[in-house]
């Protein structure tokens, strides 16, 4: 009987501690002050540290830095119109999103202004919600993180679509009277407590003499992007596989067609309510320039409170015909 009573006391104490940990009155107060349907404020602050095991610039070398430093205003106003303004202050004040939109109904909407082109699943989440500190490399290689134009979005039932027509020159606000057309079609399978989502992306960028991501190459025009993804979200395990390829005539290669292939596989596990362990295999291959590399990442994500989180990433870069490189990164984040 004494053991039973002692056990019950311990359970009650642990429940009380857990309950106390879950109470965040100041976060609740901040939410009440700054989030409503008509006016919502978002804040993202990231402090980061990088360390390369070799004395080189891999993984940012050896330094401390600030990550995404953003202020986000959005809301829905009369007659089903919406607005959003997101600013980043990392180096100098810059506009990330500047949008005016319209809700046709609860399942379909339109947005005019700067928006993500929805060409990669790994580009979709905000920097505060990514699996790893850095996105998969195919994002930086094949696309701009924002484009200026028109975007149509919808979720009719289990289907979803993202259709866009943009300048195709990122946030430069330049155009040569040619456009980039994008499309994503997806379907969501609800499997009791688990979710499986499939998506297919495609784009045609007719803009001429535009830089291709961070490749250092220039497209002479009519660049294509094709690919798709499979994403699984379970109560304990989760993962994503995504593949993209882009083809374009490169000015630096005498107009010859370069093909870049990229894919990644992310696998993760929720080991507790506040902790995740992850791994990612990230592969990039260039055809004509004959470059290939694989980046292997290990990650630990910890949600300390509702607004504070930590990330630690270990990295190993395997280049063709080059020495391996290793590094570690850490991030400390406030997101509201």
* Ends apart, CA distance between termini: 48 Å
Structural class: mainly beta
**Tally of DSSP helical segments:** 3
Please give the CATH architecture of the largest domain: Beta Barrel
SSE string, helix = H, strand = E? HHEEEEEHEEEEEEEEEEEEE
Radius of gyration: 22 Å
Description:
This protein has helices at residues 2-22, 25-34, 137-142, and strands at residues 40-52, 63-76, 81-88, 94-105, 108-115, 147-154, 159-166, 180-191, 194-205, 210-211, 218-219, 223-233, 237-249, 257-270, 275-286, 292-303, 308-319, 325-335. The chain folds into 2 domains: 1-26; 35-335, Porin (Beta Barrel), CATH 2.40.160.10. The protein starts with a helix and ends with a strand. Strand 14 and strand 15 form a beta hairpin. 11% of the residues lie in helices and 55% in strands. The strands form 2 sheets. It has a 16-stranded antiparallel beta barrel.
Secondary-structure topology with pairs:
Blueprint (H helix, E strand, L loop, with lengths): L1 H21 L2 H10 L5 E13 L10 E14 L4 E8 L5 E12 L2 E8 L21 H6 L4 E8 L4 E8 L13 E12 L2 E12 L4 E2 L6 E2 L3 E11 L3 E13 L7 E14 L4 E12 L5 E12 L4 E12 L5 E11 L1
Antiparallel strand pairs: 1-2, 1-18, 2-3, 3-4, 4-5, 5-6, 6-7, 7-8, 8-9, 9-12, 10-11, 12-13, 13-14, 14-15, 15-16, 16-17, 17-18
């Amino acid at each position: 009987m004494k053991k039973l009573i002692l056990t019950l006391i311990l359970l009650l104490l642990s429940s009380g501690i857990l309950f106390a940990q879950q109470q965040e009155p100041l976060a609740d107060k901040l939410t009440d002050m700054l989030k409503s349907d008509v006016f919502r404020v978002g804040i993202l602050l990231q402090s980061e540290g990088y360390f390369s095991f070799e004395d080189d610039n891999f993984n940012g070398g050896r330094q401390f830095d600030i990550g995404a430093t953003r202020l986000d205003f959005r809301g829905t106003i009369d007659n089903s119109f919406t607005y959003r303004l997101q600013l980043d202050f990392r180096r100098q004040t810059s506009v990330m999103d500047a949008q005016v939109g319209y809700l046709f109904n609860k399942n379909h909407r339109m947005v005019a202004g700067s928006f993500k082109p929805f060409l990669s699943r790994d580009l979709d989440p905000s920097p505060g919600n990514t699996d790893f500190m850095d996105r998969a490399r195919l994002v930086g290689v094949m696309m701009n993180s924002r484009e200026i134009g028109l975007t149509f979005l919808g979720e009719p039932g289990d289907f979803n679509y993202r259709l866009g027509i943009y300048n195709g020159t990122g946030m430069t606000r330049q155009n040569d009277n040619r456009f980039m057309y994008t499309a994503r079609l997806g379907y969501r399978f609800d499997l009791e407590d688990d979710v499986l989502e499939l998506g297919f992306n495609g784009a045609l960028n007719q803009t001429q003499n535009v830089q291709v991501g961070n490749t250092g190459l220039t497209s002479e025009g009519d660049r294509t992007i094709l690919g798709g993804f499979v994403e699984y979200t379970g109560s304990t395990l989760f993962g994503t596989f995504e593949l993209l390829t882009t083809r374009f005539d490169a000015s630096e290669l005498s107009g010859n067609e370069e093909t870049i292939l990229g894919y990644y596989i992310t696998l993760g596990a929720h080991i507790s309510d506040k902790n995740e362990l992850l791994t990612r295999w990230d592969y990039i291959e260039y055809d004509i320039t004959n470059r290939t590399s694989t980046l292997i990442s290990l990650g630990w994500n910890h949600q300390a409170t509702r607004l504070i989180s930590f990330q630690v990433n270990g990295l190993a870069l395997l280049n063709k015909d080059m020495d391996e490189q290793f590094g570690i990164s850490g991030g400390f984040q406030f997101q509201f």
